[in-house]
From TrEMBL:
Keyword Isomerase assigned: yes
InterPro entries assigned to the protein according to its UniProt record, in alphabetical order: ClpP/crotonase-like_dom_sf, ECH/Chromodomain_protein, Enoyl-CoA_hydra/iso
GO molecular function: delta(3)-delta(2)-enoyl-CoA isomerase activity
This protein's name: Crotonase
Protein origin, superkingdom: Bacteria
SUPFAM superfamilies xrefs: ClpP/crotonase
Swiss-Prot/TrEMBL keywords: Isomerase, Peroxisome
Keyword Isomerase attributed: yes
Subcellular location: Peroxisome
A Pfam family the protein falls into: ECH_1
Primary location recorded for the protein, binned into one broad class: other
Length: 249
């Protein structure tokens, strides 16, 4: 479910559920949350590099789980779940680098709001499918994305449920560098190792000074999003969208 490797003070966390396009079920949310917490606490880890196995970075929340959350009173949530992962991302004190190797939907896109550097393969694509699913945005994306890429770019990304390619993501400022597929991990790792060669305490101080001013706004955005999400999950539009998706499969 996760592959974790360490080299030169860089911990690479690879989402490894390729048969499901690395979609997050409750178990993967829990495993990734734990992996980020452990990396944060490990004095030998300076930088985390997050990527995916196979042809996807992450297809977001597993829609089977999403439908079960909305309709099954016996649905068993994970120990941490989606909100636990976002807690871990928001609190992660060290540089976080994302290498978007393929498709990124939902949290596979909104995670970039928490990335300190993001690299993207030229053949990768990103989408925030919230309006096509009849739900609200997530992971403080309603705050972080306008800050990162500007109001209008964020409005298109969050409202349209349309795919954007690597060059568009680069133009928007959603990612920092675009690389050929065969060079993506090498490029991301090379930059990660530059950072990892520096003082960890200094890296953490720089990140803290950059993120601290937005902490309250991120928390408030998450609260607003979660409120709308709870209202819309299971609504007529959401139920129709999930039924149509399952029938398509």
């Amino acid at each position: 479910m996760l592959d974790i490797t360490d080299e030169n003070r860089v911990r690479t966390i690879t989402l490894n559920r390729p048969e499901a396009l690395n979609a997050f079920n409750e178990a993967l949310y829990d495993a990734t949350t734990i992996a980020l917490r452990e990396a944060a606490a490990d004095p030998e880890v300076a930088v985390v590099l997050l990527t995916g196995a196979g042809r996807a970075f992450s297809a977001g929340t597993d829609l089977g789980d999403l439908q079960a959350m909305a309709t099954d009173p016996d649905f068993v949530a994970g120990e941490f779940g989606f909100n636990g992962l976002v807690d871990a991302l928001a609190a992660f004190p060290k540089p976080l680098i994302c290498a978007v190797n393929g498709l990124g939907l939902g949290i596979g896109t909104t995670v970039l709001g928490f990335a300190d550097l993001a690299f993207m393969s030229t053949d990768a694509r990103l989408k925030c499918p919230f309006t096509s699913l009849g739900v609200a945005p997530e992971a403080a994306s309603s705050f972080l994305l306008p800050q990162l890429i500007g109001r209008q770019n964020a409005a298109w990304l969050l409202m349209s449920s349309e795919w954007i390619g690597a060059e568009e993501a680069l133009r928007m400022g959603l990612v920092w560098k675009v690389c050929p597929p065969q060079e993506l991990l090498a490029q991301a790792r090379a930059h990660a190792e530059v950072l990892a060669s520096r003082s960890i305490a200094s890296l953490m101080a720089v990140k803290a000074t950059m993120t601290a001013p937005a902490e309250q706004a991120v928390a408030e955005a998450r609260a607003r999003e979660n409120g709308f999400f709870a209202t819309l999950l299971g609504s007529a539009d959401n139920a129709a969208a999930l039924t149509a998706f399952n029938q398509k499969d």
